[in-house]
Amino acid sequence: MPGGQSRSGPHGQGERSGARRDLNFKRPSIARVYDYVLGGRENFDIDRRAAHSFLNVIPEAGQLAKDNRLFVRRGVRFLVGEAGIKQIIDVGSGLPTAGNVHEIAHAIDPTVRVVYVDNDPMVLTHARAMLDENETSTVITADLRAPETIFDDPETRKLVDMEQPFAVLISAILHHLSDEEDPFGAVAEFRGRLSPGSHLLVSHFLDEDPRCRDLERGFMDGLGSGRFRTWDENRSFFEGLEMVEPGLVYLNRWRPDEDTPRDHPVEKLFVGGIGRKV
Ligand SMILES: C[S@@+](CC[C@H](N)C(=O)[O-])C[C@H]1O[C@@H](n2cnc3c(N)ncnc32)[C@H](O)[C@@H]1O
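Structure for SAM-dependent methyltransferase, as requested:
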């Protein structure tokens, strides 16, 4: 079980940035719950309680977050190292953690430009601190449900040339949108913006494992979001794109490294893939 340190209270860098008034510590936040499950320190009691409402259902569920980060790592390595992508928009990027997207990309090509996007202002303050003096990467506060605000943001426009190939990462976030919030429509808008040679990476909970409904209830009780969707629903995120091998698969089956965990008890709860705009 990850052990987040208790923080004395909500007195973070937000106060210095002016974003403090927008931070919400009365409710759990997806970014902080995820941070806790990954073993981070940027979380509070309310987040840890929310995490345990699904960890109590399947204690191994914490492994899903770790598998997802490793999937993102392999995906970014592919995008930069094999597909030659030089600009990345990471939507729902989360709090800084071990192996951030710009670090993975820059280990291969230091000129890659990265725009981090999240609707949680705490991500903005922490990512800004991380990116201090980094001219190839930036962070903006915007919402996945309004893709135009991401593409039209001056920071995005400064770093990403939409005429050239770029990659959009939408990882471990769409399952936090209800059907009413139309994750399918939002992703279709992102797909519509991709220039030829651009790529879309998506990871999302899968409803194949019969335990997923109990886990979903745990997520809904603790966090108010967390939907497990079918293979077909997950495939539809990539409509019209050419799938990069091996297609949409359980996360750990996507181009595994030698040490990628395999065949563990929660493997079938999470899928991911990368599609290419031809
Ligand atoms: C589970 S974390 C995933 C972080 C990272 N993408 C990864 O795969 O490791 C989901 C992130 O999406 C953000 N998020 C949730 N809903 C969002 C929305 N509608 N627009 C933008 N970001 C959102 C949360 O604040 C959180 O930081």
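The chain has one domain: 61-276.
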